[in-house]
Structures are given as C-alpha cells and as structure tokens.
Write a structure and sequence with these properties.
The chain has 319 residues and is an alpha/beta fold. It is built from twelve helices and 13 strands. It has a single domain, classed as Alpha-Beta Complex (Inosine-uridine Nucleoside N-ribohydrolase, Chain A), CATH 3.90.245.10. Helix content is 34%, strand content 20%. The N and C termini lie far apart (37 Å).
Length: 319
C-alpha cells in the first residue's frame, strides 16, 4: 500500500497594518493548516506604527502564538505622511479591546527580517502584503535580490479599472504610499494583486456576523471584532473582506480567476495632480508580471466558505 503524500504547509510572512480586516486575515492565516506563519512585519497605514505593532503582538498573544516573531516596520511612507483610517477601524485599530501585549518585537527591523528570511529560504517563503507597500518597496530598494527569492508575492491593494475607496482613482493602501506601490508594481517581480474590484464582491453583513457560531478562539475574536465594527455605526450593513480575500487567494487560488497584466501606479514622479496619486494604469492587458482578477472572476460562495471555515464559523442552518 502506497502512503498518501501530505504537502508541508507554505511558509508565509505577512506584512500588515492591523486594522480590523487585517486582524481577520491574520486569524484566518493562523488557523489555516496550509500555512505556516513564520513572521509578521508591521507598517503604519490603518493606524500609526505603534498601535499597528501592538495590535499584531496582542493578536498573537490572544491565540497563543507568541512563537511567531513580529518585526516593526515603516512609520512613514516613502514620501509624505500616512493618512490613517481611524474613522474606519477605531482610534487604536481594533474594535474589540485586547489586553496590552507582554511580548516584544524582534530586534531585527521589518526590511532586514524580510531580507534574511527570504535569503535563508529561497523559493520557499510566500510574502502576503496587506497594508501600504512601504516595507516591500524599501526591501526592493535596499536588498534588490531578496524579494525575487519569494515563492509567491500576494498584495492587497489598488483599484484596477474600477473606482477607488479613498479617491475616485485610488484604493487606500496605494493612496497611502503611492511611490512604494509604483516601485513594487514596476519591479518586474511576479505578484498577485487583489484589488478593489474582487474585494467589493465578497462581504459579510451585520446579520451574518450575528448568526455566526464560532467554535475556536480565533473565530470568537473575529466575531467580536466584526460586531464591534458594525456597532460603531448603525448604518453599516456590509463589511467587505479586503484582506481576508487575499488570504483566500493564497490558500484557494481557484476561487479567483486571474489574468496577467503590465501596470504602473501614479505618484508625484508621474503627475503633479495629487488626486491621481495611487491610480493604477494598465499598460498591457495581454501579459506581464502582475496577475489581477478578471471581471466578475470571483467565486463568491467559495470565498465566503473558505473564510468561515478558517474562522471556525458555522451557522444554525449549516450554511
């Protein structure tokens, strides 16, 4: 009898700015048997770097994963200042309070941590970027041979041939550091970009969150965070799963049909019109290093099923 082969989980480093949707994605990743989270790197974005890093440490403590190193990253974008999104995620970034973390960050900063991890494990580490791309852009600038050693690079960001969520042209992560986004997108490194178009198709409603029956500590915390987010504003009815959908793309690529493109991102070096900074411009729709979702290319039900399964959520009717 031939023994069945069980693939080892993918090693992943997650670059993050928690943020409620980042927190949900992190909880999914930590619960996923297909992923081995070997590190978190933090960046300012949704909140300043201090709260973002504290949130990352607190989330790991909440699920008893303090073995995972957290490397503190960018406090400022490559140019200008971060706008932050406290009005969306709360002043500290998380809508359910967690005890102050007792663990500490790595002595190694985010860029060096990424460089060392990728060089020590060529072709074996997936990088998932959920915030502004400042850390990845600085990695590519300071250690240009490191990021090409990644097994895969997945990025949540951009608005490709669809309206943005900060300006008509720009999505929040790319708007926050358009120069970093341009440098990464133009680097020639193959990457998967989960942009606003597919993210707008996948969401949970207030009723979905209330009906969830979490069976894990990660699932309980996710429900508390989402309930807190809805509780901030009685008019909120949908929580779009931006960062969680990027995790779905990492573990179930068939849920999103992708096409190869060549793109650039506008910043202060390409236009003086600041209203266009962070805009994605497709230069070639027939091929290139950037994979983006086809129009209507998301399997919404599969995506939601994966999200619920990784959070340990069930519903009374078994949905």
């Amino acid at each position: 009898m031939t023994a069945s082969y069980v693939a080892a989980p993918d090693a992943v480093v997650i670059d993050t700015d928690p943020g409620v949707d980042d927190a949900i994605a992190l909880l999914m990743a930590l619960s996923c048997p297909q992923l081995d989270v070997v590190g978190l790197t933090t960046t300012a974005g949704n909140v300043p770097i201090g709260p973002a890093t504290r949130n990352a440490l607190a989330l790991l403590e909440n699920v008893s994963r303090t073995d995972i190193p957290v490397a503190r990253g960018a406090a400022r974008p490559m140019r200008g200042r971060f706008a932050y999104a406290r009005h969306v995620h709360s002043a500290e970034g998380l809508t359910h309070p967690l005890p102050p973390p007792t663990s500490r960050t790595s002595d190694t900063g985010a860029v060096r941590f990424l460089a060392q991890t990728l060089r020590a494990n060529p072709g074996r580490v997936t990088v998932i970027a959920l915030g502004p791309l400042t850390n990845l852009a600085r990695l590519h600038r300071d250690h240009p041979t490191a990021l090409p050693l990644a097994k895969r690079v997945l990025v949540m960001g951009g608005a490709v041939q669809t309206p943005g969520n900060v300006t008509p042209s720009a999505e929040f992560n790319f708007y926050s550091d358009p120069t970093a986004a341009r440098l990464v997108i133009e680097s020639g490194i193959p990457l998967t970009l989960i942009d606003m178009a597919p993210c707008r198709q996948v969401f949970l409603t207030r009723a979905d969150v209330e009906a969830a029956r979490p069976s894990t500590s990660a699932g309980i915390l996710a429900q508390q965070l989402l309930a807190g987010w809805f509780g901030q504003d009685p008019t909120r009815e949908r929580f779009h799963m931006y960062d969680p959908l990027t995790l779905v793309a990492a573990v179930n690529p068939d849920a999103i049909r992708l096409r190869w493109t060549t793109m650039t991102v506008d910043d202060s070096t390409t236009t003086d019109d600041s209203s266009l900074w962070g805009r994605c411009r497709v230069l070639d729709e027939t091929g290139g290093p950037i994979r983006v979702a086809e129009r209507g290319g998301v399997d919404v039900q599969t995506s939601l099923r994966v999200i619920r399964e990784l959070l340990g959520w069930s519903h009374p009717a078994g949905n």
